[in-house]
Amino acid sequence: MNEQLEKFLKEINRGRLYKAQKVIAEALEISEVAVSKWCSGKNIPSENNIEKIAKKFNKSKEEIENIFLSNFDNKNNHENKNKNGKNIKDEEIKLLKEKIKFLEEQLIFYKKILTKEKKSNIISLSQTSK
To answer: What residue ranges do the domains of the chain occupy?
Structure first.
């Protein structure tokens, strides 16, 4: 959980972090599990729930979005790192680019073969018609 979210949760529940999720869940009439997923960065609240949270706790919609989005981003960026500290997405992009290059080379190769076959067919047709 990032500092911004932790501060917000403590603020809405008078410093008691452990009950804050329950307070939010009751205020929105949703499950504590859903709120727990937001707080752990596994999911983010819907637009509707962001508006409800903002209204209930006298915050701007943007402030609430930023709190939960930054928590979600921090969680997912941390989990998407491989053992070398590189972002897995970067490696996937590199592999995809390599595959694209290979497929483009194959396409050029097969186009050349087809062009040669067409030429040879045209030549054989022209020789047959004579």
So the answer is: 3-79
